[in-house]
Amino acid sequence: IYILYSYLGKPKTANLDKCVIIIKIMFSFTAQPHKELPSFSVKSQRENFEKWGMVQMNVQNFSYNNYFDLESKEDFVKAFFDDAVTKIAFKTFLKGSQCSLGHMQPVKYVKVKHLLSTVTNMGFFDRLFKNSVVRSCGTIKKCFDEMIDDVLISDELRKMMLTDESDYASLFTDEEKEEFIYAIFRHIVLGGYCNQYEDDVQPYIDATKYVYKDLMRVVKDPKTKNLSILSTVLKVEMFDENGGMIFPGNQSHAQNFCYFIINPEKCTILIWHHIRDL
């Protein structure tokens, strides 16, 4: 921790009462051994992600050496991408091939958004059935084909995820759309560039459940039996000196994403990202 003192008066008359203390926490990062997560590694899930076009996707595990403060989330993320270890160890995709972070353009600034993580029950998605986006049998309601943000829309579920003009755009509140579990579901439904979409919603819901469970640190109160989530989730984007996006992907798009899932107990980060760009 670096502590810098800035005196508000003349040096010879300054005292601690007139001292501003600026604390800058310095982070370093260590790549951890590959952690097999069933939601990404079991055969059925791998086949689903391939079917949905999510082939340029990666999950990696890192540790860090200092207390994480949500107020300094931008500094934390910037430190990660500037770190010499992560520039070699962090793997992403560039022009269809896997590469290390060091092969990308230098990061000028980062955009970091804190997502909510309060949902502990898959009943969160029951409203899809109650409001006819999904029929009682699980079939997703179809709509006329149209292109939105370079994504083919042929059902009401995808349309709801991409445009406010959908009849079901208000099915989830703005606050609920800030939940990490909603983001996972949205990414899985929209998939990647070459996506073979499902006619039934259940594979999407099941995959969302498995991914959420694997990525998040959940504890149960021994007395009340209630579940609570300890993980902090950050949505991350990187930009160059000209303001151009360089990660994840070269443009802000629903199919390009990166999340830092931070476990403050163990000082570890799971980083889940997907690149749409070919």
Automatic annotation (TrEMBL):
UniProt key word Isomerase: no
Keyword Ligase: no
Gene Ontology CC annotation, any one: axoneme
Keywords: Cell projection, Cytoplasm, Cytoskeleton
Signal peptide, first to last residue: none
Location of the protein in the cell: Cytoplasm, Cytoskeleton, Cilium axoneme
InterPro entries the record matches: CFAP300
Pfam families in the cross-refs: CFAP300
Described function: Cilium- and flagellum-specific protein that plays a role in axonemal structure organization and motility. May play a role in outer and inner dynein arm assembly.
Family membership: Belongs to the CFAP300 family.
Official protein name in the record: Cilia- and flagella-associated protein 300
Native source organism of the sequence: Clytia hemisphaerica
